[in-house]
């Protein structure tokens, strides 16, 4: 019996590897849109969606998988990071795949096309991607409309939806706080939590906003707006900050001090890295690709080190979402042991396939982790 089950699992993995190898013959951004449209077509059939869900969702739920973090109840701790569903087009499909939460965006107040193509590249030897998308999205108003429609149609869904927000490329840094407020107000009724993105390497000057004074202005203003809207609407929205892996420890200390001072709801660690160190991909290939942020397996150690450091410095008082290099249940358990409450994948979804949530959850340590809060 066990042998038969193992054979089926191995066969399924081999089938996806064959499909992946075929898809990897084509440009990655086009493959992304093609694959998600195919998934959307499958989910138009109630029967096919149920079959997909049975195949991909975690087999169990309950105390071993559920998490309560910053006041929200997550059905499992495995989420999809921002950048995959930038425009809230595929929530129904991602719900069927079993994600505990999905972060849409990065969303800017006004629509923008992003950087010129090609802007997404595979590093197969490294199980990594390089992207320089540049916050391409349909704008806060359009995304809010889609979220509202999805919520009305899927009111029984337990999927948690986060909103990752940023500034438009044309907005000068001194006015960035206005863009974050605009996107925040527009999405407030339609997401469960917010993540402030000042750490993408693909918008010129954006990472300068990680400096303490600039961050304070953005975050405290959003907290004030959040309190106002919470009073008017009777509901609050946790506010988190996503940080870069390329920060020095002194810069991380300043962010920690600010987060503790203003009582920030959480941190996401980490975004993509501009570093090209220790990659297996040939230097000539990397040079031909050019700029952009690396995601995937190369971030595994750095993201874990940062998580462990923040958790120790804050004595576990700030909830952490781990992002970077999570491909398996073992990887996820390492992040949880380092102090994370939740984990996010992105690149691993591309390399490992649609059953990745199922596989990670099957291997997660059971019981309520110390990160629950």
Detailed description of the structure:
This protein is an alpha/beta fold and 373 residues long. It has one domain (18-363): TIM Barrel. Helix content is 43%, strand content 15%. The protein contains 13 helices and 13 strands. The chain has helices at residues 2-23, 28-43, 46-56, 91-96, 140-153, 176-187, 212-233, 249-262, 283-289, 300-314, 329-337, 347-352, 356-363; strands spanning 67-69, 72-74, 78-80, 101-107, 120-123, 128-131, 160-165, 193-197, 239-243, 266-269, 293-296, 320-323, 342-345. It has an 8-stranded parallel barrel, surrounded by 5 helices. Strands 5-6-11 form a 3-stranded antiparallel sheet, with no helix packed on it. It has a two-stranded antiparallel ribbon with strand order 1-2. The protein starts with a helix and ends in a 10-residue tail after the last helix.
């Amino acid at each position: 019996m066990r042998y038969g089950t193992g054979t089926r699992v191995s066969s399924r993995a081999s089938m996806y590897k064959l499909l992946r190898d075929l898809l990897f013959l084509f440009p990655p951004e086009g493959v992304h849109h093609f694959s998600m449209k195919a998934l959307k077509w499958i989910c138009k059939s109630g029967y096919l969606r149920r079959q997909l869900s049975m195949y991909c969702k975690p087999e169990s739920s309950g105390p071993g998988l559920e998490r309560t973090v910053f006041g929200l109840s997550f059905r499992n701790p495995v989420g999809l990071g921002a950048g995959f569903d930038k425009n809230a087009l595929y929530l129904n499909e991602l719900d069927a795949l079993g994600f505990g939460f999905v972060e849409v965006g990065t969303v800017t107040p006004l629509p923008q096309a992003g950087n010129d193509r090609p802007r997404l590249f595979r590093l197969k030897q490294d199980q990594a991607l390089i992207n320089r998308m540049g916050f391409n999205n349909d704008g806060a108003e359009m995304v809010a409309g889609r979220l509202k429609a999805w919520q009305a149609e899927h009111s029984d869904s337990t999927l948690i939806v986060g909103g990752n927000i940023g500034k438009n490329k044309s907005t000068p840094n001194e006015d960035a706080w206005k863009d974050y407020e605009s996107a925040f107000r527009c999405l407030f009724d339609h997401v469960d939590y917010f993540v402030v993105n000042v750490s993408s390497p693909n918008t010129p000057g954006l990472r300068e906003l990680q400096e303490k004074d600039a961050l304070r202005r953005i975050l405290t203003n959003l907290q004030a707006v959040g309190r106002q809207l919470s009073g008017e609407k009777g509901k609050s929205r946790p506010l988190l900050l996503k940080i870069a892996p390329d920060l020095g420890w002194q810069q991380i200390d300043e962010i920690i001090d600010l987060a503790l001072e203003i009582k920030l709801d959480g941190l996401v660690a980490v975004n993509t890295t501009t570093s090209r160190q220790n990659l297996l991909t040939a230097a000539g290939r990397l040079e031909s690709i050019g700029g952009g942020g690396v995601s995937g397996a190369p971030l595994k150690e750095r993201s874990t080190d940062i998580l462990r450091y923040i958790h120790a410095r804050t004595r576990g008082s700030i909830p952490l979402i781990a992002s970077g290099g999570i491909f398996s249940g073992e990887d996820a358990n390492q992040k949880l042991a380092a102090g994370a409450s939740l984990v996010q994948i992105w690149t691993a979804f591309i390399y490992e396939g649609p059953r990745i949530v199922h596989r990670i959850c099957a291997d997660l340590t059971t019981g309520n982790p110390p990160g629950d809060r």
